[in-house]
Amino acid sequence: MTFPWENVAWVLLDMDGTLLDKHFDDYFWETLVPEEFARTRGVSLAAARQDVFARYKREEGTLNWTDIDFWSRELDLDIPALKEGIRHLIEVHPDAEDFLKFLRRRQKQVILVTNAHWKTLDLKMAHTGLLDYFDKVVSSFDLGYPKEDLRFWRILQEQLAFQPRQAMLVDDNADVLATARRYGIKYLFFKARSSSQLPPAKNSDFPALLSFHELMF
Ligand SMILES: [Mg+2]
Predict the structure, then answer these.
(1) Which of 45, 100, 178, 189 is 20 to 30 A from residue 6's alpha carbon, by CA?
(2) Distance 84 CA to ligand 1 centre (A)
(3) In this predicted structure, what is the pLDDT of residue 1?
(4) DSSP string covering 122-150, please?
(5) What are phi and psi of 110, to 5 degrees?
(6) Residue ranges per domain, the chain?
(7) Distance from the alpha carbon of residue 14 to the mean position of ligand 1, in angstroms
(8) Comparing C-alpha atoms, which of 205, 4, 16, 188 is closest to residue 96?
(9) Looking at the domain that runs over 5-22+92-215, which CATH code has it been given?
(10) How far does the centroid of ligand 1 lie from the alpha carbon of residue 40, in Å?
(11) Which residues of the chain have pLDDT under 50?
């Protein structure tokens, strides 16, 4: 792959699944939370999974989806404490730090753009030590809209004064990439291998990256 790095001034990077192994989040929401819900409610794991997954489904694409205080109330569980309890499972994708170093050398403006709640973001940055690689870290909770909403990008541009035609976004969420495309962000990449435990996801709308090394030259 050739890539016109000279045309890119801003590199916007998603966190979960893109830089960090999404296995942590999948395990947390699909296994640990239903187990705790079953335990505290005294219901079967199957019933708990059905109930919890239906609640997730209702909040897809909204800020509630990643609002761990919302889920604490909704499920009557201490979600931040549960996350803290498995923080040792948070992993950086093996290619991520190399790419962040590469971007530093290239003197790009590197912005973390995430739908993660601040509490999740703080926990993950503290655990991984990646914070210093970013010129700016932006959570959807700062802007009031998730990345799937055009208003997220509008407000982000107002705040950072970046040029969409000179910006790149890498994300493992195709809906987010589609919104960014509508907004005019020019260089879009789909991070296909979001979890170390799952096969790469398929997507035909955006160029797929299995590894950041494909862009490092
Ligand atoms: Mg992601």
Answers:
(1) 178
(2) 20
(3) 65
(4) HHHHHHH--GGG-SEEEEHHHHTS-TTSH
(5) -110, 120
(6) 5-22+92-215, 24-88
(7) 6
(8) 16
(9) 3.40.50.1000
(10) 29
(11) none
